[in-house]
Amino acid sequence: MSWELSKVPLPKEHKAAVCIWDDLDVTTTEAILGAAGDRDEIQRQLIEIYDLADNKQNKRSAILLDLYYFTIQFALERGFSKEQTSSFFSIVKKTHEVCIETPFGNLEQCFNYFKELVLCHAVKRPPWSISLFNPEEVKAVTEYVVNTYFRHFKLYKYAFTPVVRLDLAINYVGLPDTPEPEEDVAGEEEPVTVPETETEGAVQEELGETEHEYSFGLRMTTDAGPWHQGDSWIIWDFLMSTSPDLLRVSLLIKF
Fold this sequence. Notes:
Layout: H1 2-6, H2 26-34, H3 39-50, H4 59-78, H5 82-99, H6 107-120, E1 122-125, E2 129-131, H7 135-148, H8 153-160, H9 196-209, E3 218-223, E4 233-241, E5 246-254
Antiparallel strand pairs: 1-2, 3-4, 4-5
Helix pairs in contact: 2-5, 3-4, 4-5, 5-6
């Protein structure tokens, strides 16, 4: 179990750093800014840089292309410089990479990382941070990412991460194996109808005679049973450890 779980990445904290020119270098950023207003040209450059040529067939590539394009479009609408455009693009891209690194919920870690990335580009404290965005631009960037990316956080998680399913099996140690029922070679016997009062009395009598403490498993089944044909019963089987015998008591509840 632990070996299988270790193969699935778990949520973790990330340390933010200045990311100017990390994903879009000077030449690429200038080319993209030079294509302002031409959506096809900007998308063509993004497809070439990030190998998204299969966006017509691959839904993930199509989602990434839209994410990257609208990030550039926002930077153009705000009139960001090439340094700001490159940094903002990397902030969005790195935030997305943290989101999809694990199939488990990591919204808190992802949002904290995003805030630290923005802070690294809003305060002049070299070499840990630079003053690239003013307070008004910080507010605009934060509102844009919150209203677009984090509002659809679970959709990005669903589209880019595998589904994790837990199969749980419980084995009880120390319980004897249930013997297989013997085959009736003479034919099937007619079901015997036992009156309800008689059945309840037998159960109460067995419970009254048992004074030993017990702490073993519980099994629930639904069965019409031989007691009353057409009625439904819930049978709770308690396996009670007595010394030296093993006593089994069935509680019948009619519904």
